[in-house]
Amino acid sequence: MKLIFKIFLFISISLVLTACVISENERLSLTPTEDNGKWFILKKSDTSHKSQHTKHVKIFGKYVKGYNYYVLKGIDKVQSTAMDGGGYFTGKDENPTESPIGYELKLFDKPLIEPPRKTSYCSGVSFTAFIEALNMIFPDGADRLDSVRYEAMRMQEPDGGHREDGIKYWGHWNADGFGSHFALVQYSKMGEAVKPQNARPGDFANISWRSGLGHSVIFLGWYIDKNREKYIVYWSSQRSTNGMGDQVVNLKKVKYVKIVRLTHPENLFDFDITTPVDMSIPGDEVVL
Description:
Elements: H1 2-27, H2 56-60, H3 67-79, E1 106-107, E2 110-111, H4 122-137, H5 141-144, H6 147-153, H7 168-173, H8 179-187, E3 191-194, E4 204-209, E5 214-224, E6 230-238, E7 243-250, E8 254-262
Antiparallel strand pairs: 1-2, 3-8, 4-5, 4-8, 5-6, 6-7
Helix pairs in contact: 3-4
């Protein structure tokens, strides 16, 4: 009887372990992340952590599979370089000038920037997490990326100077307005736009504030508290978190959003660097 019980226990444990492996493999599948068209509302426990942490895969990764999972892994890698946030700074006319990210970012083995500072700002960190995701999605990417697309992805000019808004990939991502849409959806056709109710952790988002200006972020979820107040939860770089970190913001402050999802990363290797971009696209209201 004891032998039968031990055999049953062994089989049960094996099945559980196998299920865990399959689940992880599904999350790491090289396919676009899917959604069911319903609002993704976070639990309170999903938001009960400090701003700086490297548990985005653990906390939010259980809700997605496919490319968004790699974006969450990218967030954790980027955040690990500055667990205090790293500092937030903007000012391209300062000396030294602003730095989108505070470490030497590479696409595969090719450098994209020699950072003039250790600080960061919003579009810089969302772009950096995107690049780190590509590094994981394409382990053979160095052999596939040609010099033309590599140069288009750089965050600095060849002489180390500032790459202006609207110039090639980073210039579109960093532009005022809905930069991740300009770069990911229009310029490179590596992504697709999604409506707010379809958004999932690991999507890229640009926020237009009611007070003016905007913010480039990586979406983590929507949240409704016990008083029925509604929030957007995201990871980015902002002054209030001393640079990189999670932030929970009341939707009353949000005028519009534009959310996009990485769906065709393979277009990195053959997109047309002369593709025009329409910067007049409208944003979406969040009616949660």
